[in-house]
Amino acid sequence: MKTMREIDEKIRNGSAVVYTAAEFKHLIREGAELSAADVDVVTTGTTGVMSGTAAILSVPVAEPGTFERAERVWANGVPCMPGPCPNERLGLVDLIVSGTAHAGAGYGGGHLFRDIVEGRGIEVVVEAADRSVEAEVTIGDFSYARLFTTRSAYKNYTAYLNLQPTRVKTIFSIGGLQGPCREVSVSGCGEINPLQNDPLGLAVGAGTPVLLNGSVGMVTGEGTRSTPERPNLTVIADMAGMQPRYMGGFKTSAGPECITSLGVAIPVLDDRQVAGLRVLDEEIPLPVADINTRAVLGEATYADVWQQPDREVTYHPEWCEECSTCVAATVCPTGAFSRETGIDRDRCLACTACLAACPNDALEAGEGSLRVRGRRVPITLRQSGRTLAEDLCRDLQEMVLDGRFTFTGGGVR
Ligand code: SF4
Ligand code: SF4
Q1: How far apart are alpha carbons 404 and 30 in whole angstroms?
Q2: Helices and strands in the chain, H and E counts
Q3: pTM listed for this prediction
Q4: How far is CA 411 from the centre of its chain?
Q5: 373 φ, ψ to 5°?
Q6: Where are the domains of the chain?
Q7: Which of 137, 226, 265, 375 has CA atoms 20 to 30 A from the CA of 363?
Q8: Cα–Cα distance between 176 and 168 in angstroms, integer?
């Protein structure tokens, strides 16, 4: 049995053994018999569409006294909730902005959050009782800008298909989920998900320091609809330290959604923690449900999603037939693809929507399929980015190794 202080001391003197979850799983697959004596920290992570993400902003928009109280506010066209503090006559507005609020079909709260973090100018419009005020601000003008999540790091999510013959508009599809049983949409980072690696809740809870989109933050507790079998977390962090590539907007057939990334370093205090960390994709159930009724139709595993060769999406411009309209670019939910410039890796979630759309197979990846009721159904959308999540695990590993991220003093229980 180690203590958190002992692990921090090993980090400080350079003797700590710190693996990313991917490195640790590789050792397990190789047959390594690891105990708590062999490892001090494993960094875990998850990246994907997380609807329960919102921002709290405090934004100066006018000279004090210009208006009494903001009644309606938009940021880049995204409707915001003024308050809860009304800030009477101060010329600034406190705002709560949902990551799933929509300015239109192609822009929403997730896009806004990334634009803020990238330092872009944000157009704010305030309607008060007797006037309207407009201002352009950047993150440097904000006196407060934090993201919080209401249910992140969800442990083994559900895959969805459509049993009906007509397309269903849903946040789990870009163009509407085709049926019957024509395609399946998956979410979740499987064996590297933080909560998947802490099944007994020994390491992750209120006060645990985390990386939210690359910024150091903290777990505030359980999230909405969290249960012991399928837990999730609430987390908060300053937007100032966030990295744009780990966040952003994601277009779906039911409007824009919000990409969020969460990294958690798990201190290995004893062999119970090691046992939890040994979990592999092939042991993690992935329920498959009908999008219409949410009735579970079968069960796959995360190996069907993430243990495929060629997880990354590759563009072959030599196979592109230069269609009059590039449907691969049109369908891309993050704006990462164009046939002229290829894939922008800083925006790509590796969701595979472009390769499902391209009629000439100019894009390819090992997207895999799920067996449901004896039938192989192709995975046409991945709403989680395992490679990005592994990158976040590596960032966190580096921060632990160079002492920028410690356990004690961070409020870990
Ligand atoms: S849809 Fe495919 S083949 Fe057509 S222009 Fe786009 S990338 Fe090229
Ligand atoms: S995999 Fe294709 S569609 Fe998906 S984000 Fe990347 S470029 Fe866009």
Answers
A1: 31
A2: 8, 26
A3: 0.95
A4: 24
A5: 50, 45
A6: 53-148
A7: 375
A8: 5
